[in-house]
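Can anyone check this?
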Amino acid sequence: MGKALPMPGEASPQSREQKRFARYDRNRDGIITRVEMMGSRVKAFKTLDKDGDNLLSFEEWAVATSDRFGQADANGDGKLTPAEFAITAPKRKAAPKCKC
């Protein structure tokens, strides 16, 4: 039978947290400023701010949330199963390849 094949390692929560921190720390100085924190969310905010007034009304949020729910509710029963709910998770972009 031989030795079992090694299992691929999983990123530890700390390394995931370090990656998340690095995404916000734009200038790589080891500190996240308010501007860096807010700047990463501008695109998502503008997507929800349909009237472009830089204010997110409850109605704008509710429409986006309702639309997201409706797209995930595959059978239209007004309930989300765990599999349907998984569809609502933010889509992760692939990391850009190194230009080494």
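Reply from J.R.: I decoded it. The chain has five helices and no strands.
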